[in-house]
Amino acid sequence: MNLALKDIRHNAVRFLLTVTGVAFLITASIGMVGLYRGIVSDALLIIEEVGADLWVVQGGRAGPFSESSAISAELDRRVEGVAGVASARRFVQVSQQFDHGGRQLRAALVGVDYPEDAGQWTHLIQGRPLASGHFEAIADEAVGLSLGDRIRLGQEDYTIVGLTRGMVDMSGDGLLLVSVNDALAIAQRRTSEEVLLARSAGGRAPAAPSGGSSVRQDSKIAAVLVTLDPAADPEAVRRTILRWGDANVLSKAEQAGLLLDQRLWRLRVQILAFTAVLLLVMTIVISLIIYMLTMEKVHEIALLKLMGARNTLIIGMIAQQSFLIGAAALGLGLVLAQGIFPHFPRKVAIDPGDIAMLGGAVALVCGFASLIGISRAMKVRAQEVLS
Amino acid sequence: MIAAPILTLRDAARHYPSGDTLVRALDGVSFNIYPGELVGILGPSGSGKSTLLLIAGLLEPPSAGEVHIRGKCVSHPGMDLDQMRHFRRNNIGFVFQKANLIPFLTAVENVALALHIDDVPARAARSYAAHLLASLDLAHRVDSIPSRLSGGEQQRVAVARALATDPGLILADEPTAALDSVRGRQVIGLFRQIADERKAGVLVVTHDPRTLDLFDRTIEMNDGRIVG
């Protein structure tokens, strides 16, 4: 005879409300961890997908994601000449806001080195990669565009030839891929007033100050993506490029490390702190529920003791109820998370490993809550039946 | 030949301090209950009846004296009675003023619980519990939860539960207090039947003078002592 199940069946509505309350806390925990996983996944997306072994960036800087980076648009030619380099592609990424059909849209404008890179590495769900060096774009569906749409960027119109899914930058803006030359043209768009001012200066100074850089500011890219020969020694390639002095070299792992351990470090700690607070709240709530359930059954527990029941029967009843609440809430919380989070504006990645860890945490919380209930139950005396 | 007593109290006392005074809730009480005997404990409130039941039921140890059940000393001053749960389970059945049924179990489950605690397999426990309820005219109520039973029916389920492990001693604390005279007499009649048929010793604390004719004898208490 399972007393825990019979009590739950008798008080099904109370049990369901309790489970629902705890499930929402678990859903919130899944959301916090999932949001962090989503941000990490988005941040690492380009690094993982673009297929570069090394990133050549501005000397002394750790760009282009952790810091800004500006290098000469011709640096790729120098890099191509290094022994062990199979290919070098120019790369630029800037945030872009533009008007389309009366709506203000945001995108992370990514310039890829067409024709070496036509955006085949993107997750296309409709359309095709770039087939021209100009006026074509691949957009993520998060930007809010459709295949065939024409958008005005800078001074030109661009046609959306491909649509991707799940390709966003770390701030959640959908990627908009164009050729690197188009990206530079869009990024360097000047107002008529700026052009007039530049002309009046007689070409003596650029419209934008160079800040003493050796590289012309209107022809800068963010990085050169290097693909190595299979037999190449990455360290040798790195040493060669570092000797130039005006460039820094980062591996894929270093880029990922910079993002996770520096750029996103505070966010990681903050989300983990929020998750810890949620787990603490969950511990208090479940403990309180189990304690109240035990208090409600003091008379029945006294009766069981009077009838000669072993402590294991009473402990089993309390612990089973606690773990049933936890297990049911975890299941419902997971279902809610899978139903709700896909509709959130940012990616919430539900990782099986995280769910397993959360399950472990819920088990610990339920175990702790059980101990509180059991310790109260053990203090009940059989003669309390008579009170 | 006279049967050995099922319950013996020898100079049982229960004292506890209250401020500067010592309250003598039970003060040197001795008596025997024999198998098949229905004994009533009478007395005004505060006379020690309930304390007597706690000590006889191994729920409180006496401050002095001894409790013997089936000739064995089972309680004496300072004894940890939590260790006596197993003995209590197999030897003593309790019935209270309130039925004290577990609200989330049906009538048959309430009775079977006593057997489940005694490690009787579930099917056999349920079958015997249903048989006991049928013998108390509750066959039609086996699957009802306590809130759907009348007061009298609840009390009969409590009696069935007390009988489930076939104890030699039944202790009842004012079992008819919450019932009308007809149903109260029915319950005491049930104890009479149990004493006669099962040869159990039944000790009933009662205030109800209308059922005294059903008892073999009564013990009257006052100020913690037997006075008649």
From TrEMBL, chain A:
The keyword Membrane applies. It is found in: Cell membrane. It is a multi-pass membrane protein. Keywords: Cell membrane, Membrane, Transmembrane, Transmembrane helix, Transport. One of its GO terms (cellular component) is plasma membrane. Residues 273-379 form the ABC3 transporter permease C-terminal domain. Residues 16-241 form the MacB-like periplasmic core domain. The chain crosses the membrane at residues 12-36, 271-293, 313-335, 355-374. This is Putative ABC transport system permease protein.
From TrEMBL, chain B:
SUPFAM superfamilies: P-loop containing nucleoside triphosphate hydrolases. InterPro entries: AAA+_ATPase, ABC_transporter-like_ATP-bd, ABC_transporter-like_CS, ABC_transpr_LolD-like, MacB-like_ATP-bd, P-loop_NTPase. The keyword Cell inner membrane applies. GO terms for cellular component: membrane protein complex; plasma membrane. It comes from the Bacteria. GO terms for molecular function: ATP binding; ATP hydrolysis activity; transmembrane transporter activity. Residues 7-227 form the ABC transporter domain. Pfam families: ABC_tran. Keywords: ATP-binding, Cell inner membrane, Cell membrane, Membrane, Nucleotide-binding, Translocase, Transport. Belongs to the ABC transporter superfamily. Macrolide exporter (TC 3.A.1.122) family. This is Putative ABC transport system ATP-binding protein. It comes from Aquabacter spiritensis. The lineage of its organism: Bacteria, Pseudomonadati, Pseudomonadota, Alphaproteobacteria, Hyphomicrobiales.
